[in-house]
Write a structure and sequence with these properties.
Layout: E1 2-6, H1 10-21, E2 25-30, H2 40-43, E3 48-51, H3 55-67, E4 72-74, H4 83-93, E5 96-99, H5 105-121, E6 128-135, H6 145-157, E7 163-165, E8 173-180, E9 187-193, E10 198-204, H7 209-222, E11 227-229, H8 231-234
Parallel strand pairs: 1-2, 1-3, 3-4, 4-5, 5-11, 6-8, 7-8
Antiparallel strand pairs: 6-9, 9-10
Helix pairs in contact: 1-7, 3-4, 5-6
C-alpha cells in the first residue's frame, strides 16, 4: 500500500515507521515546509492519504482528497463544524473519508463503556459527573477531541445534563478539566461522585502505539469501503 502522510509530526512519523515495517511505502510527507500543493503529484501516487495536521489545514486536505478521488483517513480534530459540508460532498462524489477523534481500540472500548455508564447513571441524580483529560504541553486543543466525544456521548445518553464547559458552574453542565503536563501521551477519566462514593472510568495511553495501529487499520479499511466512515464502521462488534 502506498501512503501519503499529510502532517509529519509525532503521529505522522510514528505511522511512517510502523507502516514501513508492514511493507507499506510512504510516497509523500506533507508538513509545514512542504505543503500539499507542492507535493500533490507525489501524493496522487498514493493509494490512501492519512491526515494528522492542523484543523485549518485538515478541511483543505479533505477537499483536495475528495476532488482527486483519494480515500483519506483523518485524525485531526477541530474541523467538525465543516462535517455537514464534508458529508454532503462525500454523498455527491461517492468519496471516502474516514474520521475519528481517537484511533485507539482501547479508547473505542472506553467510549462504549462510557455510553453504557451514562445510561445507567441517568437514574441516579445523586451522582455528579466530571470529565478530566491530561496531555503533553504541545497539545493545542483543550479539551481534547477524545474528551469532547466523551461529553457528547454523555449528553446524548444522560438527559440530566444540557451542555459541557471548561468552567461549569451549575448542576446541568458537565465540568471538564484539561490538564497539560510534560511527557504525557494521554489520559482520560470520567467520574461520577455522590456524598457516599465515586465511580471512575479511565483510559491511560502508555504511548502512541495504539493510535498508530488504529490509523493504519483505518487506511487498510478504506481501500475496501467508501462513504463517510468512523470507528463504528471498522469495529462494529466492539
Amino acid at each position: 500500500m502506498n501512503i501519503a502522510l499529510l502532517g509529519y509530526g509525532k503521529m505522522g512519523q510514528g505511522i511512517a515507521a510502523y507502516a514501513e515495517t508492514k511493507g507499506h511505502t510512504i510516497v509523500a510527507r506533507i508538513n509545514s515546509a512542504h505543503a500539499l500543493s507542492d507535493q500533490l503529484q507525489q501524493a496522487l501516487q498514493a493509494d490512501v492519504w492519512i491526515e494528522f495536521s492542523r484543523p485549518e489545514l485538515a478541511i483543505q486536505h479533505i477537499e483536495t482528497a475528495i476532488t482527486h478521488a483519494k480515500p483519506i483517513v483523518v485524525g485531526t480534530t477541530g474541523w467538525y463544524s465543516h462535517l455537514q459540508y464534508v458529508s454532503e460532498r462525500v454523498n455527491q462524489t461517492q468519496a471516502t473519508v474516514f474520521y475519528a477523534r481517537n484511533f485507539s481500540l482501547g479508547v473505542h472500548l472506553f467510549f462504549k463503556l462510557n455510553q453504557k455508564l451514562a445510561q445507567l447513571m441517568q437514574a441516579h441524580p445523586e451522582y455528579a459527573i466530571q470529565i478530566e483529560e491530561w496531555h503533553h504541553l504541545q497539545k493545542l486543543d483543550a479539551p481534547s477531541g477524545t474528551a469532547l466525544e466523551l461529553c457528547e456521548q454523555t449528553l446524548k445518553y444522560n438527559k440530566r445534563y444540557i451542555d459541557w464547559s471548561l468552567h461549569a458552574d451549575n448542576s446541568h453542565t458537565i465540568p471538564v478539566k484539561a490538564i497539560r503536563q510534560a511527557d504525557i501521551t494521554g489520559t482520560h477519566q470520567v467520574m461520577y461522585q455522590s456524598a457516599a462514593d465515586r465511580v471512575e472510568l479511565r483510559h491511560h495511553a502508555f504511548n502512541r502505539n495504539g493510535f498508530i495501529y488504529g490509523a493504519l487499520c483505518a487506511a487498510e479499511f478504506v481501500l475496501q469501503h467508501n462513504g463517510l466512515l468512523t470507528m463504528d464502521d471498522m469495529w462494529p462488534d466492539v
